[in-house]
Amino acid sequence: MDELENIRKEDTKKETDKKCPQCGAVMTYKPGEASMYCQFCEHEEKVELEFNFDEAAQETEFNPTIDSGQCQWGSETKLIICKSCGAESVYDSLQVAESCPYCGSVQVMEEKGKDTLSPSGVCPFEINREKAEKLLREYIKDGWFTPSEFKEARNKPMHGVYLPFWTFDSKVACRYRARCGFEKTIPKRDGSTQIEVTWRNTSGHYKKFIDDWLVLASTRYKDPAFKDVKFDTKKNVKYKPEYLAGFTAERYSLPLTDGWKEAQKGIEAKLSKDIESKIRSETDADRVEDLSIESRYRDITYKYLLLPVWMSSCTYKDKVYNFVVNGQTGKVYGETPTSWCCCCAAVAAVIILLMLILPFFGIPI
Ligand SMILES: [Zn+2]
Ligand SMILES: [Zn+2]
User: Fold this and answer.
1) Distance 18 CA to ligand 2 centre (A)
2) What is the Cα 86 distance to its own chain's centre?
């Protein structure tokens, strides 16, 4: 069978295969507590978690000219035999942590595969499922124009996932040129005014250190909400399989070189903004146009981090709404549907209010 040929056997990590010493149940990582926890007898074991420099992920030198296209996992699947119940489960090759569908044991897989990079660091979950669910409920309830049926609808249970990210550091030196426009208001004979712009060329240098520029290294999550999540990457710790126990984790599917290209796009956009405001403050210009930047990147380094999010979705009127809760901070991202009835009612209320108030200020309506 063709399908079977694509299945590769893989092993799980010893650290997460061990069970609760008191009752033998599955132990999972307890967010915020940095420990492995048994839900049945509440036995807890500390995971060594130190935020010192030696424990944090180290930067690796990056050479953008070397193609590291080691992401061709394709449709390959892998077979994991559960060490607790012996059941065999087939996972897709991107998954690195899952729970056994039969007995719930945590399965953190080895980072096998010749070209696979293993994560440099992890930012462990700090917010637990209950807290994430509560924050999401509040977020949806607070939406002014969210239809009430949506507020009352039940979200699917939250799912904790470690998403793969590339982070890049670099020193950037820029040379720029632009045109500055200075506006002058000229009164005209008929009493009206006209704006006259005088243009001057400008050029200069700008330097910046880019620190931990994040790029989502997964091609699976297309919802823009995933790209907006901000993490405190300084709180990363060296990768240990224990942090993944009880969660889902995925390995990168965006190659490192593509990640750098994407980072550069974002960095260039940020540099343009920075340089524009630099020009405005230095020259007092009213307009900045034709800005061209030549940038040189030096000392590029990267890290491969697994970062925590809680995910949930809700289907409303045949459309799926995705929600992401930052597993570190609890900030909620995602769009809620808009009730046009509420919107119109709000606009009508504002108009009526203005009609009542304005005559008091002597403004005719
Ligand atoms: Zn136990
Ligand atoms: Zn099992």
Assistant:
1) 13
2) 35
Q: Which ligand does the CA of 107 lie closest to?
A: 2
Q: Measuring CA to CA, how many Å separate 133 from each of 139, 151, 155, 324, 340?
A: 10, 13, 9, 10, 27
Give the E-state strand segments of the chain in sequence order: 7-10, 27-30, 35-38, 44-46, 60-61, 77-81, 88-92, 95-99, 106-108, 121-122, 159-187, 193-216, 237-238, 248-250, 287-316, 319-326, 332-333
Return the pLDDT at 1. 42
Q: What is the DSSP letter of 300?
A: E
Looking at residue 280, its pLDDT comes to 94
| 122 Cα–ligand 1 center, Å | 26
From the CA of 310, how far away is ligand 1's center (Å)?
25
* pTM of the full structure: 0.81
Residue found by looking up tokens 């590029």 in the block: 300
Q: How far apart are CA 120 and CA 166, in angstroms?
A: 10
Query: How far apart are the CA of 90 and the centre of ligand 2, in A?
Result: 12
From CA 78, how far away is CA 5, in angstroms rounded? 10
Interior angle at CA 144, CA 139 and CA 148, nearest 5: 80
In the chain, where are the structural domains located?
2-170+207-272+299-334
Ligand at shortest distance from the CA of 25: 1
Distance between Cα 101 and ligand 1 center (Å): 20
Predicted local confidence at residue 50, as pLDDT: 55
Q: What is the DSSP string of 123-173?
A: ----S-HHHHHHHHHHHHHH-TTS-HHHHHSPPPPPEEEEEEEEEEEEEEE
Structure tokens at 215: 């790029």
Residue ranges near ligand 2 (ion) with Cβ within 5 Å: 82, 84-85, 87, 100, 102-103, 105
Alpha-carbon distance 213 to 211, whole Å? Answer: 6
Q: What does pLDDT average to in each consecutive run of 10 residues of the chain (365 residues)?
A: 58 83 91 90 82 68 65 62 80 79 80 67 93 93 83 81 93 96 90 92 96 91 81 90 88 88 95 95 94 95 93 86 93 86 73 78 67
Ligand nearest to C-alpha 18 = 1
| Cα 247 to ligand 2 centroid, rounded to whole Å | 15
How many alpha carbons fall within 13 Å on the CB side of residue 53? 1
